[in-house]
Amino acid sequence: MEKNIMILPGDGIGPEIINETVKILDYISFKYNLNIIYEYGDIGGIAIDKYGTPLKDDTLEKCKNSDAVLLGAVGGPKWDTTEPGKPRPEDALLKVRKELGLFANLRPVKIYKPLISTSTLKEEVLEGVDILVLRELTGGIYFGDRNRSSDEKGEYAFDTEKYYRFEIERIAKLGFKTARLRNKKVTSVDKANILESSRLWREAVNEIHKEFEDIELNHMYVDNASMQLIRNPKQFDVILTSNMFGDILSDETAMISGSIGLLPSASLREDSLGMYEPIHGSAPDIAGQGKANPVAQILSLAMLLRYSLNFISQADIIEKAVNNVLEKGYRTADIFYDKKNKLVSTSEMGNLVLNEIKSLN
Ligand code: IPM
Ligand code: MG
Known about the structure:
The chain is of the alpha/beta class. The chain has helices at about 15-30, 45-50, 55-65, 90-100, 125, 165-180, 195-210, 220-230, 245-255, 295-305, 310-325, 345-360; strands spanning about 5-10, 35-40, 70-75, 105-110, 130-135, 145-150, 155-160, 185-190, 215-220, 240, 265-270, 275-280, 330, 340-345. The radius of gyration is 20 Å and the shape is globular.
């Protein structure tokens, strides 16, 4: 059966790293007869420039009708604005997440042995770290009421953190199910000592936990969690948390690995439709210079094949190829610290992974 992928390269380094990834998609699809059809669409700043909106309705429709979406990155200083009502590239991202109902954001962080020295943390703290940040993605303060106004004290602004019990329950359920396939531990992160929404979060997570007694559950306040991640990251398996806390903690967790340029993510709902994108942003400062690391994007494709299309062995091959290329000492600029390694450009890295894939089958 035909599979349809919508590809949204976006801004900054997005198009370059998507290019490298599409080379690999083309090869895998041809080699294994996967019958994958793909189409490109504009999202973010580029869409604002072309159409005055960061995401056209027909692009959104195409995403809804696809089997999966592969996204590069959005945003850049050109479109940064604090003016209320002005279109922002990031609006498009939130819109796709919300309209497609992608409530679960999976951000796996593991330590690549050959890269362990690129982290700012000590090797003995890092060895064996394997964390999945599971971030709620369609609720909370990202989507709550917000506005500006003024009263007798002057101008003010507010944002609202609001969670429905069902939103917490479904992400908690996924957290426990995922932990079952991993190291059977869930740390739920909240701020229940202050926030009412966090108290409901904690209650709902405890309730769902009754269905998963084989899984160890602990609760942690977000300030403590951010400290524990640096102090002893090995204590974590699945970190289950809200949209806002997940945004912050996933960047921290990514940096533990030393290389945000290597980390993919998946945004999923109950059925198999998902959107896949690197954790890193559009890096406008290095765009167009061949310096970007395409690996997070390539690994996002592997996640897409695994979770949305169920092409598991092909996903395995891509991940293995990336690992081998890193083990052979090839590095893009972001992870080039040791002069003994070989510095390569974006497209060289893409080609190395592609050739490795070819040699693996
Ligand atoms: C992320 C990003 C986005 C977010 C931005 C670009 C809107 O930081 O995916 O983590 O805050 O969710
Ligand atoms: Mg973020």
